[in-house]
Amino acid sequence: VFVCRVRRGEPSAAEHAVAYGLEAARCDGSDLLAVIATVREAVERARRGEGATVVDLVLGGEDDALDKARRHAAKVGAVDDAAARALEARTDEELDRAIEAAASTDAPTPGSIFDHLFAALPPHLDAQRDELLDAPRPD
Question: Which of 17, 46, 55, 66 fits as disulfide partner to 22, beta carbons 3.0 to 4.6 Å?
């Protein structure tokens, strides 16, 4: 499941999913329950072996989705302020580690764009990969 934050009026990531043979879904990214339902459906689809899904979380210009989610979680008694702060701290730490790991990784090779998309690369994409790998490279 690939989840993308998309601002209203910006190009959609999910619109391009079809080019990779993936399913696409969109929902209001500021609606916690809609996000949970959409992502849950995508996860269940993947677990059934029906493939990956690109999910666009569409947000308005002023994004207060996190505040809305916090208010809702507090309203239903799912989390208190201390738990929310602890979760935010853990999330920030995990994000920092992921950014550091990505920054320390070598740049991908041009042909790697075709890797890990399909169990067996379809012939038309295999041909495109060969064409890309055979193309002259700037020095």
Answer: 17
In the 8-state DSSP scheme, what is residue 29? T
pLDDT at site 139: 66
CA 23 to CA 99: how far, in whole Å?
Answer: 27
Residue 90 clears pLDDT 60, i.e. is over it: yes
Q: State the Cα–Cα distance between residues 7 and 121, nearest whole angstrom.
A: 32
Whether residue 42 contacts residue 23, with contact meaning beta carbons closer than 8 Å, is answered with yes
**Amino acid, res. 127:** A
Beta bridge partners of 25: 55
Q: Which residue, chain included where needed, has tokens 């993947």?
A: 46
- Give the model's pLDDT for residue 113: 84
* Prediction pTM value: 0.57
Q: Are 8 and 58 in contact (CB under 8 A)?
A: yes
